[in-house]
Amino acid sequence: MPRVLIIGYGNPMKSDDGLGWYVAQALSVQIVSRDVKVICSQQLTPENSEEASRAELVVFIDAREGGSPGEIHHEAILLDKGRLDKGRSRSFIHTHALSPTAILQLSNELYGKAPRAFLVTVSGQQFQDGDSLSEPVSSALPNVIARVKKLISEE
Predict the structure, then answer these.
(1) Are 130 and 124 in contact (CB under 8 A)?
(2) Which CATH number applies to 4-153?
(3) Which of 35, 70, 96, 148 is the most buried (most CB within 10 A)?
(4) Cβ(82)–Cβ(108) under 8 Å?
(5) How far apart, in whole angstroms, are the C-alpha atoms of residue 31 and residue 34?
(6) What are the phi and psi torsion angles at 34 (to 5°)?
(7) Is the whole model's pTM more than 0.85, yes or no?
(8) Listing from the earlier edge strand, what are the strands of the sheet with 116-123?
(9) How far apart are CA 21 and CA 39, in angstroms?
C-alpha cells in the first residue's frame, strides 16, 4: 500500500493542459519506491477516491488558466468534514470533471478517510490542440517536480 499518491492529470494533446501528465510521467521514472504511486490520467475519476483512501498524502498536479504563464502554485486541499452533506456530496459523482476536493469528499464518504492533500498547478499559456508544452510551462517543469518531491519529503 503506497503511503503517497501522486495524480498528474490533463490532456497531453491540448498543449499546456497536459502539464500534469508530463510531470507524472517524469516522477514515475525519478521516484522508484513502494511508498509512492504515480498515476497519469486525462481526468480525475471516482476510482481515484479509492486509491486516495489508502494513502497518507495525495498530490494532484494540473495546469490552470490565469496568472503568468509558467507560474507555479500549490495549496493544501482542506475538507470541512463537519459540513459534508452526504446527500449533496453524491451529486458530483455524475460529472465529467471531478475536482481534487471532490475526490477527497468521495474518499471520505465511501471509505471513511480523506488523506492530507495538495494541489500543485502551473499557469498555462496555450490550451489549444498541440502535443507540446509552451516555453514558459516547459521551463517550469523542473521546479514543479522539485516542489512535488519537497511535499513528499515533508510527509
Answers:
(1) no
(2) 3.40.50.1450
(3) 148
(4) no
(5) 9
(6) -70, -15
(7) yes
(8) 36-41, 4-9, 57-64, 116-123, 72-76
(9) 9
Give CA angle at 148 (130, 60), nearest 5°: 65
**What is the distance between the alpha carbons of residues 118 and 126, in angstroms, rounded to a whole number?**
24
Pick from 67, 66, 70: nearest CA to 122: 70
Domain assignments of the chain as residue spans, ordered by start: 4-153
- In sequence order, the β-bridge partners of residue 90 are none
pLDDT one digit per residue (tens) for the chain, 155 residues: 789 999 999 999 999 999 999 999 999 999 989 999 999 999 999 999 999 999 999 999 999 999 999 999 999 998 865 444 444 444 445 445 689 999 999 999 999 999 999 999 999 999 999 999 999 999 999 999 999 999 998 86
- As given in the structure block, the three cell numbers for residue 46 are 471516482
Largest CA distance in the chain: 44
Q: How far apart are CA 17 and CA 136, in angstroms?
A: 13
Phi/psi of residue 126, nearest 5 degrees: -140, 140
Residue 143: CA atoms inside 13 Å, Cβ hemisphere, count? 12
